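Session log. Operator J.P. requested a structure for one protein chain; no other inputs attached. Running the standard single-chain path with token output.
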Amino acid sequence: MAKRNSATNGHERAPGSSTSHAPSDRIGEESPRPRGRPRTEIDPDAVADAVARLFEEGGMEAVSIVSAAQKLDVSRATLYRAVPTKEHLLGILFERSTHELTELASAAAETDAPVAERLCRMVELQVDAAVRMRHYLSVFFGGADLPPDVVARWHPWSRDYERLWTKCVEEAMDAGVLARSNPVTATRLILGMCIWVSRWYRPSEGIDTAYIAKSAIALLFHS
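Structure written below.
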């Protein structure tokens, strides 16, 4: 009579050894998740990227804690610990976007180039930002659905950003590059023109961003 194979497939077990395999021996099986404190650190840039993609895919209605967690490939509980509400998701994207706008505009405004070149560069950057951020820029400039603390920071940021532009616009008027008018009013009109691109721009129309900026600049400068 043939002997039955043991659970060890014919290999002898050393005394006291276990019949279970270590996790590393399980081919194709996922190792148990190590125990410990759950991860609570969430990269704000990753959150901002996820929210921006959600805006692009479905607008404001697509943004939620659940959908953001899916984009980030983390659990809802993990995301909730760092970002408790939809409004805070918007706040993270807002903070990064305004920081980026300030950095770009400041870099252009503070060069030693002639004022006409600086102002042209600022218009180009603002139009480019309006196109890139078109899915959510109007939400930010409208201020709706933002957390109160973000709205509180929005007002001084908006004033500082406008002052940055106004200084360059006034210099352009002094240099005869722009027609003389009220610098603050002119600045708001220029910014409004650039920001409004985010409302009507459609990639399917084949209008290049550089062409839009060039057209805006042509409207500003008089010969």
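Operator note: The first helix runs from residue 44 to 58.
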